[in-house]
Amino acid sequence: MAESLYSDSPYLLILSITALVLSFYFPTLMGSKMTVQSMPSSMKKLILVNIIWNACSCIGIIFFSGNVEPGSVAYNLRQVLFGIQALAWVRIGMVSYEIGEMIMFSKITTLRNVTNIFASVLIVALTALFIIDPTVLESLDIQIFKTNPIFASFCLIYLLFLLPVFIGAIYQLLHGSMQAIDHTLAQTGRYMAGTYAFFVSIACAFDIIIPFTVNLQTWLGPFHFMIWHQFLTLFLTFLCSQYYTSISFKNKSSLWFLRKIISKMDDGIIYFNDDGKIEYANQGAVKLLAIPADNLQGKSIRSVFPPNLNFFNELVYNDIQMDINGERHSFKIHFFKVRQTMTTLMNVAYFIDQSKTLLLQKDLKTLNEQYVEYTHDLVRYQDRLNREARIKAEKENVLNTLINALPFRVWYKNEQGVYQKQNQLDLDNQGSLEGVNDSRESISPYERNARENGEAGVYTSYVNKDGIEVSQDEANRLTKNGELVQTFDNMYIPILQGQAPFKTLCIKVDMTKQRRLEQERNMLREQKFIHSRLEELGTMCGAFAHDYNNILGSQIGFCQLAQEMLPKDHQAYMFISEALKAAERGKTSLEELLNAIRGNAKSATPAIVISPYMIIEDVVKKLTLTLPPSITLNSENMDHSIKIRGVVASLDRIISNMANNAIFAMKETGGTLTFQLLRDELAEQLVTPFAPPIPAGKYAKIIISDTGSGMDSSTLERIFAPFFTTKAPGEGLGLGLSSALRLLKEGNAYFTVQTTLGKGTTFNLYWPLETEIKEN
Amino acid sequence: MSTILVIDDDEQFNLMLKSALEIKGYNVETASNGRDAKALYQNKQYDVIITDIIMPDVDGYEVILDLRRLNMSDRTIAVSGGGRTAAEDYLVTAQHFDVAATFNKPVDLQALRSKVEEIIKSHS
Fold it and tell me: Which of A16, A96, A666, B58 could be stapled to A57 by a disulfide with Cβ–Cβ 3.0 to 4.6 Å?
């Protein structure tokens, strides 16, 4: 009787049928997580193994339970069934190993396929052997082969081909989970290894170890081969699928996350196959290369990047220059490979546009340089600013000093008429008015005009002794009464800038002194005028007197002669006496007339204390009007402090006459006429040719020098003669120097004359100095 | 017999002086201006020369200065009636030119004759 291979237990049959049903339903059970198509092949294999194993087991229990007569048809069929069953279970190890590898991402080795084929061949051979000769193993003379040859031989196959794979799988799982970087993966690997080891050791213990220790006999009957393995494998399948799905889900989410990142990246990612055909390009790549995604798809990687690159090695290229839309760009390109499935690799180009970075670095460098430059500039500008500020302060200081030193009042108002600045003189007069606003009504129309219309205005104001402004008439009246009236010239100067109203600069000049001087001057002029009129009259009378004097002189002379001839008692003598008397009376009345004229002239122009420089200036002014262009007039060393006592008209006459002579002397040649006025003190009497001696004393010395023709001594002798003239008839009467001489005598003044023929003549007039003591 | 030259542009005055001096026994010649006079005194020695100052053509000053050059200043008497300015003006100048004497017009005949007498005496 051959040994029992299938139990007749109905429980075992129920279990086997349940296991078969579960195996069929397995994909449905897992359906919520995955479909049959998406299952990995090893998973499918595992299910297939389960189905075959359980199906065979069911058939065996139903048809071939218990001992079967060797050599019978039942025996042969049972052996074939058992062999098919063995072919299924011998794959369990391989498949479970594959799943472990898959989960841990290890590499598949082909060696186990060879052992697998070897085991399958062995099983087929063994089955055939048992069918041909059921007693063939009894000849081995081993107890276990004699009693249970089938059990023992298949156990040997199990031990040879399955157990090592089981142990290897456990080792691989543990090894993989140790090395796994991913925490979840490591944990999964450890759990899987644990459960795997647990099931394998339980199945091994109950199916192999225990049966052999009790010589394959229990009180219930014989042991049946691999019963525990059959059911535990189902559990293992469930566990494997659980682990797989959890791992694959995690992978999927990682993949999804990665895809998302890749699509959002600014850097370019291109996948291309081993032919160089582009299969995927992210948005970053599209943007960087400026080629639409549709155009990139299917294009060769060589047409995108420079073709001389090595695209299929893991390399990094720095600074690859490419023209994109006419712009030069620099790329950094990484080429590497990634595993896409268990067997296929994908080439990846990962590239970064460095030109922007380089550009930015360049910009940064430039900016840094600029910054340094700016810092230097800043220092320089600060320096300049400081210098300018210093200059400004200095200028302001100078300006302030100048304004304060001005001999007249200055102030300055803004557009609204508010006082902004006053000089010291104005402060002394008005006090500080800073910030004070003069109302529009209180200011003069000139100032208003300057402020509102931008026209400068000047007017003269008069202020009485109480400081109140008065009209010109009133001022004249007050002056006549001898009261103090101050005269001011007021100037309102708009500072033209922008639109009206304007800022105004006001200047107030005290003209009181100047006005007094002017009045003095006018008075002198008036005197001179009167004098000249009188003199004119005097000259006329003089001419008349000369003629009449001659007439009378003759008459008187003849009368006297007649009287000498006649005896005194002669009647004619008496008549002649009467005629003489009449002539004498005529002479007297003539003298009276002359005296009256001369006396009047004298009384009209009394000698007063005068400043000669004023008179010289007057003469210069007068001469300038008729001066020939070839002659220049000069005034030098005008001592304004010199005062003399004299008749203004006389001095004017003397200087005018001498100047006229000098100008006449230079008429042909041209030249320079120079006036000088200075103090001179003569320590002793001064004696010069052609002039009376000058006593020692203090004098005002008026020098009149020309660069004319000069005079020879004979001319010089006669220059002071009336009617002596070198002028052509009609050019002058020759009265000038003689009257000058007379006037000098009248004024108690002296002169000297120096002349060099061809070089010029100098007259020095010495006028007694009016000392201050005398003046007082 | 002393000879006297009288120079004046007034013929009547010349005649008057000539008469007054001739009475005193002097030989008197007259000239009506400086140029005529010069022709006379250059050719003839006069004891006294009496000249007016203001005259047309060559005036009295020229005569005076000319005579000064001939060393005849001390024989020269200047006479002036004044004119456009007072007679003194002219006479002061004449004195300045060292004439022997000056007389205002109308001339005091007695004084003039005695002055002439004095000059002639001083040279005799």
Answer: A16
